[in-house]
Amino acid sequence: MGNDSDANKEKEKDSKGKRKVTIATKDSYTRVTTISNTTDKPNTQTKPTMEDIPQSPIQNPQVHNIHTTVDNKIVDGKYVRTETQVEEARKEDMKQHVEAIKQ
Question: What's the predicted TM-score (pTM) here?
Fold first, then answer.
């Protein structure tokens, strides 16, 4: 048991003048794009007008979602097709290191 207490004293001696530093970063990004087309005839354009190309400025996100919704309405006798795209990206990082205390 004497060896354990000696080892602890040695660690305390070495750890004096040092501190543990933790750096936590959280990045998040959300982009909402809405495109509306108005025509006189229904089903004029049936293919999507938006591209599903991710444009997140976060490098290597842990979460990256793209959700597109389409809404068709008749407004004042015209057919309105509205596409809404929501893109979300998130990344969290935590780094720890020990450094000397600056005096």
Answer: 0.60
Cα–Cα distance for residue pair 13/25, rounded to 1 Å: 32
Using alpha carbons only, give the angle 44, 46, 52 rounded to the nearest 5 degrees. 135
Express each pLDDT in 45-87 by its tens digit.
666 666 666 677 888 888 889 898 989 898 888 998 899 999 9
Give the C-alpha separation, 87 to 25, whole Å: 20
Give me the number of domains the chain comprises.
1
3-class SS string, the chain: CHHHHHHHHHHHHHHCCEEEEEEEEEEEEEEEEEEEEEECCCCCCCCCCCCCCCCCCCCCCCEEEEEEEEEEEEECCEEEEEEEEEEEEEEEEEEEEEEECCC
Range of the domain at 7: 2-100
